[in-house]
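User: Sequence recovery, please. Input:
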């Protein structure tokens, strides 16, 4: 998932998990890291 899609998911749902994934994707600087990020949470 791209960072923009994660941000929109957070805005739509308010889910803290979506924000954490978004924040981690920004830190990693890559849009294709959702599988790695999900495994870390």
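Assistant: Recovered sequence (41 residues):
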């Amino acid at each position: 998932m791209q960072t923009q899609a994660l941000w929109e998911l957070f805005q739509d749902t308010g889910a803290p998990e979506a924000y954490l994934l978004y924040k981690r994707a920004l830190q990693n600087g890559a849009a294709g890291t959702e599988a790695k990020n999900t495994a870390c949470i």
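The two ends are 16 Å apart (CA to CA).
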